[in-house]
UniProtKB/TrEMBL annotation:
It comes from the Eukaryota. GO terms for molecular function: 2',3'-cyclic-nucleotide 2'-phosphodiesterase activity; ADP-ribose diphosphatase activity; CDP-glycerol diphosphatase activity; manganese ion binding. Pfam families: Metallophos (PF00149). Residues 7-267 form the Calcineurin-like phosphoesterase domain. This is Manganese-dependent ADP-ribose/CDP-alcohol diphosphatase. InterPro entries: Calcineurin-like_PHP (IPR004843), Metallo-depent_PP-like (IPR029052).
Length: 326
């Protein structure tokens, strides 16, 4: 058995930093807004000590409490700007690439163009308006970062075709006046809420093309998105709107796609699907009490992936079949 990994990378989810007193979620779960930076700093310290090749933050880098009115923003340095910079300053200390993706709280506080620029996404997708991209951290391995809010009321101005498509989707699937509410919806239909979103047709075509190229090259692929992609990993309200289409694409490439990573739910979740793909949802830094930790170091071998969890972040070992096979 291979003793040393091919590479390592660090993972954190849902920092949701805000310079405000501690609070709680709509369900009464404690949230430690200021303490999130301390936990992130410890995560980065552990990543550096482990000599990770890169790190990933799975979305929601700042919290919606940072959002301000235009009048407030013009009068003082905007809270969303300073909160975002506080988090980015800590990631900078890693001195290794950090790959970000958009979450709903990101889009409550900043426009898509601002996030693409500040999070380094623009450099990775050629300056396009979309927020999905691919990287190759090592020969034989690729990472696809998806934009779960490509079809969404968040991040696109009214009148944009993807904004209009999101409006039509919610109108058809969610009868509630308050579209953030899943009341009355059953099972996986509860995913059709305003704080959710989905992949556009263009992104699905791009993803299929990327996976086809990876299979032809004999590469393996890890796919990441803020929103979970499998219903067995999370509450239905947290699912990607068109998760079924996404799974259909992923499962068409068994042995090429080996794992997915997501955040959003604030607690760990896992399943392995019929195509042999490991699906992991990662717990949130935001809801981790001071003195505890919530980050993972993922070690990638030829025949397995080892998840080394710290604190609330669960450890695991995932077997891998031959490239191109389950």
């Amino acid at each position: 058995m291979q003793s040393l990994p091919l590479f390592r990378f660090g993972v954190v989810a849902d920092v949701q930093h805000a310079d405000i007193p501690d609070g709680s979620s709509f369900h009464g779960v404690p949230r430690y807004y200021r303490g999130a930076l301390q936990l992130l700093q410890r995560a980065v310290d552990d990543f550096k000590e482990a000599h990770v090749n890169f790190a990933m933050h799975l979305g929601d880098i700042v919290d919606f409490h940072n959002s301000v009115t235009p009048a407030e923003a013009s009068a003082v340095r905007s809270r969303p700007d300073s909160a975002l910079q506080d988090v980015l300053d800590i990631f900078t200390r890693l001195e290794a690439p950090v790959y970000h993706m958009l979450g709903n709280h990101c889009l409550y506080c900043h426009s898509r163009p601002v996030l693409n620029q500040r999070l380094g996404i623009s450099e990775l997708q050629g300056g396009q308006r979309h927020s999905y991209y691919a990287v190759q951290p090592l020969a034989g391995w690729r990472v696809l970062v998806l934009d779960g809010y490509d079809v969404s009321l968040l991040g696109w101005e009214p009148g944009h075709p993807l904004h209009e498509l999101a409006e039509e989707t919610l109108q058809a699937r969610n009868p509630n006046k308050e579209k953030n509410s899943p009341d009355g919806l059953e099972g996986t239909e509860r995913r059709f809420v305003k704080f959710g979103g989905g992949l556009s047709d263009a992104q699905l075509v791009w993803m299929r093309g990327q996976l086809g190229e990876a299979r032809a090259a004999g590469d393996r692929v890890v796919v990441a998105c803020h929103l979970p992609m499998h219903p067995d990993t999370c509450p239905p309200v947290c699912l990607l709107w068109n998760y079924e289409q996404v799974l259909e694409v992923l499962q068409a490439f068994p042995g090429t796609v080996v794992a997915t990573l997501a955040g959003h739910t604030h607690r760990d979740g896992y399943c392995r699907d019929s195509a042999g793909i490991h699906h992991r949802v990662c717990a949130a830094i935001l809801e981790t009490p001071p003195g505890n930790d919530c980050h993972g170091i993922i070690e990638v071998f030829d025949d397995r992936i080892r998840v080394v969890g710290h604190g609330r972040f669960q450890s695991d070992d995932w077997s891998l079949g031959p490239v191109g096979h389950t």
